[in-house]
Request: fold
Amino acid sequence: EAARFLIQSSFGPTTESIGEVVGQGITGYLDQQMSLAPSLTKVGMWRTGLPFSSALWRHGWWRLALIAPDQLRQRMAYALSQIFVMNTEPGTVIGDNIDTQAIYYDIFVKYGFDEFRQVLEDVTYSPAMGFYLSHLNNRKGDLSINRFPDENFAREIMQLFTIGLWKLNPDGTHQIDESGASIPTYDNDVITELAKVFTGMSHSTTNNGSAAESFYDQGSGNDYKFPMKVWDEEHEQGPKVLFDDVVIPDGQTGEEDVQQTLDALSEHENVPPFISYRLIQRFTTSNPSRAYLSRVNSCWDRCDGEMGQVLKAILLDPEARGGDLDSEYSGKVREP
Reply:
């Protein structure tokens, strides 16, 4: 049973870790793991003994997966990275900069047990994500030249990172309207409005670390290591009407618009079942029952999205620890 638990909660059981679980109990082991300092890939990649290359971050990731003491944190970071997906293939300004790759991934290592809102903000301001989903250097609209704000990040932060396509019940089932149809969480008009929120985001540094002076100062290389800044000179002014009639009022700064939007997204009723479902899939079972998801969803509500507590609820749930191993709701294919 200890080995089975470690297959779920680490990158694989060892004789030593099995002994720790048997000695401390599962709850004691989880508490001990959550108390450990984060093992960052930015540090680990330089301890591989391998020469510098665009693949060094990946080698560092493997090193930590194999030997890092904070295995639970490493598994949580890996799970979150499969939700907040970002491309690190060589041949781009991100794929060829191992420090930038590490800094993005280490968001999940550092904050994987903290509140979901923290992770969402760091991902939003990451220039790596800004480059990937093109809200880096996103300019306000100009109808005279038929220019409109880029919609990529606005769409994906809803569809993939927070609230999904359909309004959900706490057990993950779709909310249904009077005609029996699923209720969308947003429409194309909301995407257009939300895209305006993420205008004006650009580098906070330029020339490899010097403070940028305007939206138009172009970063390069190591400037992708620093969080982006919202520059009002290219931020779309005016009110913005988002999902569930959330209104971003006129007269705010771009920074205030982004912060209010992140608050509204992270507080949306869909976030607990949407994110919890995906975490359950990464850790315990590909097809969680409604009751399992409801219990984890209740934990999310009680702890205000503190993901360490949510993860404990996922791993300690009766459906994960015991249950019917022949049930349609049991188990998943092991990570390759």
